[in-house]
Amino acid sequence: MNNINNITESFGTLYHPKSALVFYEAKGENSDVYVEHFDMDRNGNPVNAHPLTVKEAKVLAKSLQTDEEKNQAFLKPKGILPTNILHINPNAEKGTVLWYTKVQQRQMYFVDSLNIPSGKAQVPPMLWYANKNSLAVFALATDRRPTEKTPLHYAPFFNIYEDGKVCMGTVSIDIKNSASVEEFIQAWESYFFNSYFSHLLGRYSPIKGNCVTVWKDLIGTDKPFPKEVLKKNNKPLKNLL
Predict the structure, then answer these.
(1) Structural domain spans, the chain
(2) Parallel, antiparallel, or unpaired for β 46-51 and 33-40?
(3) Which of 78, 99, 172, 223 is most buried, by the most CB atoms less than 10 A from its CB?
(4) What does each of the 241 residues of the chain score in pLDDT, given as a tens digit?
(5) Which stretch of DSSP H or E encloses residue 63?
(6) CA torsion angle 190 191 196 197 (round to 10)
(7) Distance between CA 37 and CA 46 in Å, rounded?
């Protein structure tokens, strides 16, 4: 190999050491602890050893507290809770959000093999249910705020399993622990509509009729989505809670 490629541009963020703490503990029953603070020179070597000052300790405590607050901020609203949110479980590890959207026009993308041009189209009211790693979507019959008894319909899209779970393919999902509920739902809606619809999953059809034909007829127009083609999945909303 005669050519040497510069791969430094492919590295992630490079962090430089700024300081270090060394904890000393006395032997014996009364194990007193002494903390020494080191600065770092430009080569990453510890210099200027001195006892940890009160000011330095406060800076460290503030930094640790900020990280803790970020972890506790998961799914908290930025202000008044948006009215389209139906349920929130703010658990940092298993947190979920249930929300709905009314009829709207969205940009949609399709793989070439479907012979559907990418473009904007009217989509029906939708119910969304997500955690940090997965998403399920359903269609609704009206724009009215759903209740526990509201019947759900199959979402009339490609890439969705019969139980409503979305196959995200190679989409890289990155929901942060510090995400507010607004950022969370915005991220999932963006992941869903900005990925390419490619194929139906399983042996069921999500609508009455041909899914390809329906979207071919809607793309690039202001035609409302034909709600008469929606199929009930015989499950009410409360089954998701």
Answers:
(1) 17-72, 85-240
(2) antiparallel
(3) 99
(4) 444 444 444 444 566 777 888 877 777 666 676 778 778 787 778 878 777 787 776 666 666 555 555 556 789 998 899 999 999 998 888 899 999 999 999 999 999 999 999 999 999 999 999 999 999 999 999 999 999 999 999 999 999 999 999 999 888 999 988 899 999 999 999 999 999 999 999 888 999 999 999 999 999 999 999 999 999 998 999 999 8
(5) helix 54-72
(6) -90
(7) 9
